[in-house]
Amino acid sequence: MTAGVSNVFFTMTLGFVVVYSSEVLRGSATVYGVLLAIVSLGFAPGALAVSRFGAIRWAGKAWIAGCAVSGAATLGFVYFPDALAAYLCAFSIGSVLGFTNTTWLTTVQLNVPGEMQGRYFGVDQLGSFATIPLGQILGGYIIGVYSVQFLYTLSGAGMLALSFACLFSPSLRGWGYTQSSPRADVTAAAAAASP
């Protein structure tokens, strides 16, 4: 559910980077291309940091923090309308996405029994991606009626509000994987039984 909501806000911004780069930064197609490339570039260090920080132990907290950082970086696009600042915000968002997505997916694979993973990922992908068109439609409408700055402000504030709301979910805050997780016992037993 949280991924579905965050994807609405994320799509509202990433889908309209071209409008932001031309109307706010007054940049060329190159500026637009660099902004998108920097988001993608951020995924690598973000994903690699998961193991370094042992993030699977605190996957829920990583998700909540990731929503907050993404929201703050999105607001940075509005309050620091400069190409270098925008590049830094884009890299921050990419790094957070790489970190939280890798943490979440790894933790699910460790916690959810293998025979249930297809079902879990099917429902997760449906819920996550079904909201993307809503973000695209809302984004275009909001830019048309208000402005791209208003859209990015709304999106950043929405991500921060989502992060704050998630703090009230004990199951999400406490979600993660340790050697004492229920799935760890099943995995250890299966490894011991295999020839």
Description:
- By secondary structure, the protein is an all-alpha fold.
- It has a single domain, classed as Growth Hormone, Chain: A.
- It has helices at 2-14, 17-23, 29-53, 59-79, 83-111, 114-129, 132-145, 148-166, 170-173, 182-193.
- Helix 2 (17-23) packs across helix 3 and helix 3 packs parallel to helix 5.
- The longest helix is centred in the middle third of the chain and has 29 residues, at 83-111.
Number of helices: 10
The helix-and-strand class reads: mainly alpha
What share of residues is helical? over 70%
CATH superfamily: MFS general substrate transporter like domains
Quickly list its features.
195 residues, mainly alpha, Growth Hormone, Chain: A
Compact overview of the structure:
This protein is mainly α.
Question: Could you outline the blueprint of secondary structure elements for this entry?
Answer:
Layout lengths: L1 H13 L2 H7 L5 H25 L5 H21 L3 H29 L2 H16 L2 H14 L2 H19 L3 H4 L8 H12 L2
Helix pairs in contact: 1-6, 1-7, 1-8, 2-3, 3-5, 4-5, 4-8, 7-8
